Structures are given as structure tokens and as C-alpha cells.
Amino acid sequence: MHPDSPRQAHALLQQAVPLMRKMDIAPTPYNYGIWYEYVRQSTPKLNQLVDSTIGRLGSLPSFISKELFHQFLVSEEARFNSQHKEKLEEFINTVSNETHNMTENLVALQSAMDKSRHVLSRADRQKHLDKVIHYLDHSTKKALEEVESFSQALSQVNAEVLKLKAELNEIKNNADLDPLTQLLNQRGLERQLYSLIPDSEDDLSLLIMDIDHLKEINHEFGRRAGTALICHISRILSSKKLANSTLARLEGGSFAIILHEATLDFAIKYAEELRLHLNKQRFKSRSGQGIIEQIKVSFGVATIIGQESPNNLIARAGGYLDNAKRQGRNRTASR
After folding, report:
1. Tens digit of pLDDT for each residue in 122-151?
2. What pTM was computed for the model?
3. Distances 202 to 96, 188, 196, 269, 309 between C-alpha atoms, Å
4. Is residue 299 a contact partner of residue 182, using CB atoms and an 8 Å limit?
5. N or C: less crowded end of the chain, CB within 10 Å?
């Protein structure tokens, strides 16, 4: 949903309501939400799905409206968070009450129109015309008041939904970040792959890197030293990050890099550049107990094949990383 002024909301409703009446769409909050967004034309995918559904079925069934409402107007997290769910229910109840009032007055206006038409068909005196004017004046004023009230309520709910979406985005972002390095975590990596893979062909590559002998480093210099090394490497990887790439930290000393537009040859070359750069780095533990003369890492590199799933791509890159480890570590493997 978008921030519209009461005047804008009123204008959009004047477009949405006749469309709903024309196709005999039930005046439910879900339907009003969908058709309000439809006439606003700010979500092309929604409009495409509505048009194709009407083309196939001749109308938009309520159960489909509900699905579209949750898909396009409500973020996924809201459906599983009880606090936000209660807030959404409050929004829907507010719009539902206003919808009921507006619908009643639109029905009353329709009745007034029918009466006026009937009177006009038999009108032969001034008092008949006065009666028609009275019907129309009273009914249209009442209907306009309710439409304005509905517009204001919708505008208020709209602002609250925007606030809720901002909260949910913040929660989602925090849930997708690794607290130690502030890079994406495993969940964030998977989300990114799911968003990129449908539009990719053979130019999306995944690099999974792991610090060699991290357990031994933790044992010799302490776990704090291992944690500091992970943070140190995350800063190096960030400094070497390509413009069209995504960086994530997985478990322990493992990192992942998505190259959005990269062939396998390019991805292997980039992995080798990173590995050789890290090999030149020395690392001193915070306790000062010793120095790691050379940071050694292993890479597994995979490029997407056809419509491969994110999980399969991650598994292949992880398998190639295991091969690099078996082949002696501190190397890059792509099979």
C-alpha cells in the first residue's frame, strides 16, 4: 500500500467501486484492498494476475482476492507474528466497519435513484420534481459523507500499514544479518538467491570459502583469536567486494559470495585473486600470543545450471569446497 491523501484515496475509490459493482465483486475488505491497488496501477504483477484471472473465470473470486491481498499487500512475516497479526486484524475490522457503512449508503443511494426514476416517469407537477430533488439531495449527501469517511479511514489505515511494513522490514533485515560481521547470514543468502535465480541464465555464480585449520587456530590461540580472524577476513572480503555481488557469512569460518553476472571462468579467477590476497595477510591475535604468518582459505565455486534451485546450487558449491579441502586445502575447486 502507498501513502495517498484523502483526496487521492477518494478519487481512486470512485474508480474502484464502479468496477467492483460492474463485475459483482463482494464489498469485502480484501476486495476493496485489491481493487484500490488495481486502479492505482502501482503493482503491475497484481494487475496482470487480476486481468488473467478475470479473463479465465469472468470474475475475481473472494478466495483469490484473499490470496492476492496477502501476497501483494501484506509481507510474509506479518502472517506469522502475533503482535503484527493483531494489528492487521484491527486494520481489517476498521475498514470492514467503514465498508459496511459505505455499502449501506450506496444501496440507499441506488434506492433513491430508483424512486426518483419512478417519480419522474409519472411527473406532471412541480411537487413531483421537488420530491425527486429532495430524494437526490438527501441521499447523495449521505453517500458522499460515508465515502469521505471511508477515504479518511483508509488513509489512516494506509499510514499505519506503512509503519507496520517499516517495522517488518527492520525485523527481516535483522533476521537476515549475521550479528558478528553484519554480513548476510545463511537465511539472507538463500533469500537473495531465490530473488536472483528466476531471472538468471548461466551467469550467476556462487563462491563458498572456508578458513583452513580454524579449529587448530582456536585451540592454539583461543576462541577469541578465531573470532577476531573471522571479523578480520570479513573486512578484507568487503574491501574486495565487486559492485555486482553479495557477501554472506555462514557457519564458523565459512563465507559465501554471489556474483550476479559472472561465468564460471570469471568466478574461478575472482576466487583465486581473493585466496592469493588473503595468503599475503598476516594476523596477530589480540592476546599477542602469536602471529599467523599466512591466512589460508579454500574455495568451492559453482555456476548455476538451468533452473537449478538455490539449495542445490549451495550444495554443489559446498561439495566443491569439500573437494578443495580433500585435495590439500588452500586452493579453489570447481568440481
Report:
1. 656 666 667 666 666 767 777 677 667 766
2. 0.52
3. 48, 22, 12, 17, 13
4. no
5. C
